[in-house]
Here is the input.
Amino acid sequence: MKSKPIALFARCCITGLALGYGAKKFSGGSGDASPPSAADSSASKSGSKERGSDKPAAPSQVDLAKEIPNATSLRSTETLESLKADNTDLYARLALWMVDASQEDIAAYWQFYRNQKDRSNDINDVIFINWARIDPLAATAAAKGTPDEHYAWWAWSCHDPKAALDAAIATNPDRINNVTWGIGEFHPDWVLKHFDELPEGGRDNALQGMAKWDDREHPEEIMNFLKEKGYGFHSRLFKVLSVRDPWAAYDWLQKNQGGDDEGYRGSSDSLMTSFVSSLALYHPDVLARIAETTPPGEMRRKMEDKAFSSLLKVDLEAAITQAEETKGPAVAAQRLADVGAAVARTDPERAFGLAKRLFEVCPNPWELGARLVSPGGGYTRWGSGESQQADALLGALVTADPQRAMELGAGPETQTLFGRTASLWAQRDPEAYANWVEGQSSPAKKDQGTAILVYQLMNEESYAEAAEWAGSMSHHGDNQIINVVANWAQRDPEAARAWMGSAQLSDQVRQALEGYLNRPNR
Here is the structure.
């Protein structure tokens, strides 16, 4: 959005015209190509009302005043002396005072303010924008040869780009860059038409000025122009277009693939990501329709995911229906996990039903990538190996009913599910989880549950308890004990050795542990 000097300047000009305080024009004129000033364009929009004819009548100052409620109440009661005496809320007070301040008053205030410590750029801007509106020659003359000279020339370009440019070329070439930047900032449409007329050394500044603001009236034209001139993809302008007219933004992006510049010059990939995010927030219905027309691939998947996330926020039942009807197992798993987590707090029974459906469709959503097996027997997994959605659902189910959640991973094909569910429960309530493990009648399930408890206790540095549980395992208990004590020895070798002195261990395990305890430079 525009900074407050520019925005408030426009409001002040509208108010000033409504009260009959029009801005003076530079006596040199600006030629046929000069666009209207910000004040002129704002006023004409305010006054374009139908008055019983096919064409709008030219607005009078009285008409303009009628269109601004209580316009006279906006007139400042400040004086030059009161502004000098009190700088509280200075910007708003000064801007309103300048609506009908004379050139002499503005000059006098500048002579005061220019000597103040810790001056604000915003105050400098509003002073020179209003001063140049009335008398740009006086403003530039007052700042000539000072560190503030650039403010005056930049402000002049706000009101009369052609006159400011001609004057800089003729009398002060060092200020061409300030003028061309201002022209690009305030009058991008003028730059589109007259770019080749700008001095070559100032063209880059004009382009940077064009790129400064996001809320342009015709973002497509400016984006095309910047791209044509080598300034890549303007991500902020594109975001504005995405919110205003998503179909136009989508068409523009389809015609402008490629590019990988940095800064505000984003790549086409980054613009597409921004486009999807903007539509998910502001136009989720349009995003869903665009996704339907997009060829299968990663981008379509992103669009569909964002559209589903938006639907989940506004219509849970519709999201559940869509999740249940989704065909692809990977996508179905993610959507079922999302809706299941959403209903878990208020309707655990339904959440467990959705979870059951999820793991029927996709028993292991944590391993969705391709498994590449080498000739030697090893393998590498390519693709996604995580599912945050499934973990979120499991967390909600463990909170609601941990024992029932454990039953979801009862089958041999769901070992990963069993392990993740057990880990969540062991982290949240190790005592309750330990009681559940102790009560298991199946030796295999008990060992599997115990191994997870041992790992959790090790993480908590409860090594003695972890070793005791490891010793209770039917299979692989010796390996678990060695692992626990080896880690313990790194933290506290004396405590580990003391535990070994009273533990009932096989000679093989004791010999292996002595090797860990006797290692130098632990």
